[in-house]
Write a structure and sequence with these properties.
The chain is mainly α. It is 98% helix and 0% strand.
C-alpha cells in the first residue's frame, strides 16, 4: 500500500510539474486553429481574386481584338475606296 501511495504522489508531482507545458500546448493548439481559419479565409479571397483576374484578362483580349478589327476595317475601307476612285 505504501508503494501505491508513493506512486500516486509521484504521479501527482509529475502532473503538477507538467501543468504549465500542458496549458501552453492547449494555447498553441487554439492559436493554430485560429490561424488555419484565417488562412482559409485568405485562400478563398485569393481564389476569387484569381478568377476576377482571369475574367479581366479575357475581356481585355476581346477589347484589343475588337479595336484591331475596327482599325483594320477602317484602313481597308479607306484604301479600298481610295483605290477604286482613281
Amino acid at each position: 500500500m505504501v508503494e501505491l501511495a508513493t506512486l500516486f504522489q509521484q504521479l501527482n508531482e509529475q502532473v503538477v510539474y507538467q501543468e504549465e507545458q500542458t496549458v501552453q500546448v492547449e494555447n498553441q493548439t487554439i492559436q493554430v486553429n485560429e490561424d488555419a481559419k484565417h488562412a482559409n479565409t485568405q485562400l478563398d479571397q485569393g481564389i476569387k481574386s484569381a478568377r476576377r483576374a482571369r475574367k479581366l484578362k479575357w475581356w481585355t483580349l476581346f477589347v484589343v481584338v475588337l479595336i484591331i478589327a475596327i482599325i483594320a476595317l477602317a484602313l481597308g475601307l479607306y484604301f479600298g475606296l481610295r483605290k477604286n476612285n482613281k
